[in-house]
Hints:
With 512 residues, the chain is α/β, with parallel strands linked by helices. The protein folds into three domains: 8-85, Immunoglobulins (Immunoglobulin-like); 100-301 and 337-401 and 433-465, Alpha-Beta Barrel (TIM Barrel), CATH 3.20.20.80; 471-511, no CATH class. The protein has helices at residues 110-113, 119-123, 126-132, 168-180, 199-202, 225-240, 263-274, 290-293, 303-314, 327-334, 349-353, 363-374, 403-416, 434-439, 449-465; strands spanning 8-11, 16-21, 27-31, 34-37, 39-40, 45-50, 57-62, 67-68, 84-85, 105-108, 136-139, 143-144, 157-161, 184-189, 208-214, 217-220, 246-249, 279-282, 299-301, 342-345, 379-383, 470-476, 481-486, 489-494, 507-511. The strands form six sheets. Strands 10-11-14-17-18-19-20-21 form an eight-stranded parallel barrel, surrounded by four helices. Strands 3, 4, 7, 8 and 9 form a five-stranded antiparallel beta sheet that branches. The chain has a four-stranded antiparallel beta sheet with strand order 1-2-6-5, with no helix packed on it. Strand 3 (27-31) and strand 4 (34-37) form a beta hairpin. Helix 6 (225-240) runs parallel beside helix 7 (263-274) and helix 9 runs antiparallel to helix 10 (327-334). It is elongated.
Amino acid sequence: xxxxxxxxxxxxxxxxxxxxxxxxxxxxxxxxxxxxxxxxxxxxxxxxxxxxxxxxxxxxxxxxxxxxxxxxxxxxxxxxxxxxxxxxxxxxxxxxxxxxxxxxxxxxxxxxxxxxxxxxxxxxxxxxxxxxxxxxxxxxxxxxxxxxxxxxxxxxxxxxxxxxxxxxxxxxxxxxxxxxxxxxxxxxxxxxxxxxxxxxxxxxxxxxxxxxxxxxxxxxxxxxxxxxxxxxxxxxxxxxxxxxxxxxxxxxxxxxxxxxxxxxxxxxxxxxxxxxxxxxxxxxxxxxxxxxxxxxxxxxxxxxxxxxxxxxxxxxxxxxxxxxxxxxxxxxxxxxxxxxxxxxxxxxxxxxxxxxxxxxxxxxxxxxxxxxxxxxxxxxxxxxxxxxxxxxxxxxxxxxxxxxxxxxxxxxxxxxxxxxxxxxxxxxxxxxxxxxxxxxxxxxxxxxxxxxxxxxxxxxxxxxxxxxxxxxxxxxxxxxxxxxxxxxxxxxxxxxxxxxxxxxxxxxxxxx
Length: 512
């Protein structure tokens, strides 16, 4: 536990206490055009209690200058540049009691999952996911970010659910609705950087450091107590106030901390003090096991299995696919001692959306990839639409309102793929073009019912296999065959282009 106070606007049923971390600054809060000076306390925190109810709009004023939103705002109804709003939520509902090995995760992006692109619209499809055999929905980041649509990894106001999706109350309804159906909710959170527009946050305090560099610029400085609290209190809020059952932490290899206790270790301790059953799942570079071996987290993404299968199916060996291409590579991933704590997949937002054109595996290739991940001992995850063989791509899209950032994003995307074969860089979709976003919305009208039924059967078989280990794994490299025994069944995957051992080309079968 920490003696650092909860920051932001906190309503206790009678009044609202405004707190902000802003060392070496004078801070006032402006409510209904009236300015109230905050009192300086310890640790660079300023606070003031006012008799104002939920729904009240407010801004902070630094050193008598411009009005700025609260860096810890729970609600930004008008987006990045509007005022913050005081929020009160009803107590959360309890989620299902699931063990890690019972997870079958479904990753979704709120804006493209439905035509309306809202939290409330997403809920309409949860019963079908439950019936398919999904046990947890993983929601890509929802922190308020620039513009209306984007992937969410450039969030600025990390405590405030994105207004274009509906804002805080509809996200709370999504969590409650999932729980009512027996589904857990995992939320994707970003603590490795802050998106474009972060200057409104860094004006309050030194959140960044040039001691480390990330893909997005200067790193977040977790040696500072206030910055640590920014991340840890955020994780606590999602669990305590919204009732989410797990957090997926984005790109933790870009989180640097020289403190005696790593910030992600402290985060795990404090979140699990609220609810011990909460899952912490990290995106981490292949081979770095700090999340599960040092920080006390529950699982991490295991991209190696995806890469091994993808190269066997496509022959692509550019970028991080270099070094894969043998059936033995897949065998190695399946036999990794850590695989029960690896999230594995046939597709995810990165492996589709970070392709130049955002194209997906389809048909038989997708079914074979799913066969390998769902029947592995790993924690399987589906990406929205793959269960019925979605035909639309999932492309990289943004809606930056800053014209300079928009131009740099567009140029950087094309430059990133300039040396890739098979297309010209100008063919890369413009992230800022609204059509790039619209092309990425799911089209359920073209769903393949036989494909869907195949997934349903695979998920049911996975549930039957339970925690059974892999035994008698065999590789036939010349014929591109892999087989193993698990839980009373024989599993055979044929990556060849012709039928072998009674297994159709590029297919998998199970024999009892």
